[in-house]
## 1
Amino acid sequence: MFFHNFKYSIKATLHNKPHMLWSVAFIIALGTLFYVSFGEIYSQELVNAIKVAVIIDDTETAEVFHDMVANISIDEEGGEKLLDISDVSHMDEAKIMLEDGDIDGIFYSQDRELKLMVHENGINQSILASIVAKYHQVMTVIADLSEKAPDKIPAVLSELLLGESHNVEKKTTTGDMDVYIAYFYNLIALACLMAVNSGLVITMKNQANLSIVGARKWVAGAGSFLQTLAELLAGIVVQCLCTLVGFLYLVLLGVDFGNQIGYIALIIIVGCVTGVSLGFFVGNIGKGSAALKENIGVAVILTSGFLSGLMVGDMRMMVEETCPVINKINPSALIADSFYALNIYDSHDRYYKNMITLFIISVMLIIAGTLFGRRKRYASI
Amino acid sequence: MAETVVKIENLVKRYKETLALDHFNMEIKEGEVFGLLGPNGSGKTTTMNCILSLLTYDKGTVEVFGKKMTPDNLEAKKNIGVVMQNVAVYDELTVYENIDYFCGLYIRDKELRKKYVGEALDFVELNEFKKFYPKKLSGGLLRRLNIACGIAHKPKLIFFDEPTVAVDPQSRNKILEGILELNKNGATIIYTSHYMEEVEQICTRIAIMDKGKNIALGTKDELKKMIKNTETISIESINVSEEDKKNLGALEHVYEVNSDGEKLIIKCNGGKHNLIRVLNYINEKNIPCGRVYSELPTLNDVFLEITGKELRDKEA
């Protein structure tokens, strides 16, 4: 009986095209959108140095400027740097390159002052403007020191030009601090919670007041715990497959999930179990209409996601400060925190604790849902 | 003596202010094809759902197979089949899979189930469509699938809730023949409908319902004997004077004469040669007339006489 129900539930779910399409398309569509958006930021940050021309006739200005940008310019050995100085020596030639978009700006001198010429506004141009600002800051310091303490000029100049910092970065973890990957983690967490819909569908196909199929099954005396479990398991399997397909798509797209893919897969599985269980529970409470229960399901997903910070980044911290118990039982917060723990900590203690908590919540929701929904009688259907 | 399969006593069911079943009583014996006949909203489906323990009720008792019917009475449920008014199948499963799935809720043995599913497919003649998905089936074929899903497990008691609604005449006849065959094979049938012709055709005993009450119960002949009318004579395209009407009304066994200008309707109670007497009078008076019909009373006449209204709204 268990296998009979499981087999046909799997078949029915797989043939439910709108449900399947939504389950897979959600993560693929949003994942692609994220990737395109963040990919642009990555490429600007990590790959393309800003191409500039430097046409400085004044020797003193040229010397200070070249010392200042030496650390952030691409040298002969290559490497990732901020500036890529073009080999141009004439202003006219540089202006043509600027207009053609071959370079983003021209550093030039006028009246012994460093100036910047740009053709349009953008992130690159803002960065170039900040270099000019820094140059003026350095020159002001030199001017001050030449009057007050000329002997300290070489030491201060060296420090300013090399851009040395007295702040020391001390890492408490070797984890990946990439802020953008967190968006993909949150996306997967939301996809897991979407499994609420799967749980709701299972309930609706079992309740006489929510579907005609439910009435037929009710009359047949269906609804034993094993039958319910078979249908839930089928829902979970299909939902996990959909989410894992979405996750695989993100991996193929080039999103770097690091070397913890097995752990991420486990979060997806446990997350889907929780999502389906939550939907099953919501569907079994009370005798409301299908539309009402669907609306409650959406509200549960959105509220849970909102409180966990899937929409507003700092929300989970705010909840932690005001009512920490919510974070301890909110499925979305636990899924997001599992990703966070995986992302940040070297130890998996917190990760496993979250997984166990989610599993216990799922079991409780299934038991409660079964008790609420078992052999109901209706005042009207 | 046949055993009682369903027994309802004093059943009262309210939907808020509406009284859906008003102290309803009914007893159905094994082997019967029992018809629940009544207009829409008379309480037929509510009665069925109360028997199945799907609906709560305010008062009364329902027994099935000699035991009180409750949601946990799985022994009774195992022997009940239901053919819902609306088609209750999975759109995502094929014809074969649907029958197998629902049969599997009752029959665990895989081989036996396979046999039963095959027999159900043969019974509703859907073998050539067994790999079709429900969306690809016509309305009539869908109804047959709906029936197959309800009867595949060979139940002893089968509920048919208006199974022929929106079905073409050919499919309707097949469904009715199938129901009789199921009954011949030993199943007790409870058939709800507002089509009096169907109920007359297949039911051995009939309960006529109105406003949640059982207003008449018996075989179709017993029901017809409850009313005064035994024959209705209709004559088309006839113009009769008031004097002729009076004279016709004075004929033996005639108790009512009505005319709407196009048709003369004469109602008789008893007697064997009413039509001849009426036609002789028209012939004697040389009254021109069109077609002539003589009809025996229908269940609609029974309903009309008891409640003062038509059993079924006039169809367009």
Note: Chain B touches chain A through 34 residues (CB under 8 Å).
## 2
Amino acid sequence: MANRTVVPFGPQHPVLPEPIHLDLVLEDEKVVEAIPSIGFIHRGLEKLVEKRDFIDYVYVAERICGICSFMHGMGYCMAVENVMGIEIPRRADFLRTTLAELSRIHNHTMWMGLLADAFGFESLFMHSWRVREIVLDVFENITGGRVIFSVCKVGGMRRDIDAAQAEMLLTALDRVEKELEPLISAFSQEYTVLHRLTGVGVLSKQAALDLGALGPMLRASGWSLDTRKLGYAAYNDLSFDPIVETAGDCMARTQVRIRETLQSIDLIRQAVPKFPQGDIAAPVKGTPSGEFFARLEQPRGEAIYYVRGNGTRHLDRFRVRTPTFANVPALVQTLQGCQLADVPMLVLTIDPCISCTER
Amino acid sequence: MTLDEKRDVKRTITEIEPVSVVERAHHMKSAGYRMVEMHCTRLADATEVNYAFDLAGDFQVFRTRIPDGGTLPSVTGIFSCAFLYENEMQDLFGVRVTDLSVDYKGRFYKLRTATPYHPGACDDAGTAAAPEAAGKEG
């Protein structure tokens, strides 16, 4: 048996924009065990709900993460609205769906760049982020913000999308789709990409389920599970099927995200012409009393938002289970047996968001 | 569409005794459910623990109460992914979990305050869940 050595990976590492630590037990260059540690930036945002007005807390929920900021606000609002029995206007549902899918495009194009950077393909990284920039410009035009939007509120939305903005949005999506073509070609056919991703970090279909994997990680292992199919917001009125791959390796996870980016473009194109006329927010009366589990599909997978109100303006409990937290056991599994040089790719193919995980 | 129709496809919450937790987990596993999440809510003199499972949109939650100083059996032998949630319970709420497959012994989160949702839980439990956490810099 080869000598075993332990290599600390993170919390500060060039491939990690946020701190997670892995103790990698190696036999020569092969990883035989990985022990994760988190908690370096635990912020206690769930606890903060006890001290903030339930209306104002949306601003805190949005700051759980910079990439999924809109969806965190949306998930919190969905939970509170259900507790309070508030039916938001249908137009607000469509606006939320549109911004949620734009957030997915933003996340996936950013992730493509980070992955390319992890295996040293810097021009692919730069091209991916150039596409992402188009989406950020759209966000800025519609909401006034590029990262934190503060347009979602309990009862609906703060800002509408007018006809000119809708036209600008669709034109921008045409451009995103066109600019994605060479990227998709590179990710699917380039020798170096195929060499680094194909057959690496295979997660079997059964292991993905047993380990609680979510989102693209789960769907790349053959499971057709997508929370959007539950029909929240406007998804009931849109036609789509979950993107599924079966190989379970890094390439399958990449392909799922690439195809989901194109699917999000399609979903927005379906949604915009269907925007109903009318208000974008319903009045909020009273205080939340009761509990609810809201579920939505973030770019990284299903997120759960639990709220419990006590009839005052301060909630008793807010809990968010983020997809990265749930994907850690699957990451640990895929690391076992891999080569040390593949660790950055494997860490990135769960699309880790430690901000979300640490809450 | 009514508000009820907009809610999750199915969602049930069932209260169970702590001694039934492992048996229920076994049942859900054999029925094909996946573990979605676990979380705690602090009550006046106890901690409520929720176990959420899903099968094709059927969302089932099992809820139990652990009195202060009590222990909870681990379900990591059935759902290995539960080790994250159970370590979180120990660190944030001071709930002692027995037979945990991967036990960080209070070091899962690097907290300035031990068991912030239940200050003093280490004293209640007799043996501290997070003995080194108190006063540790984040």
Note: The longest strand of chain A covers residues 289-298.
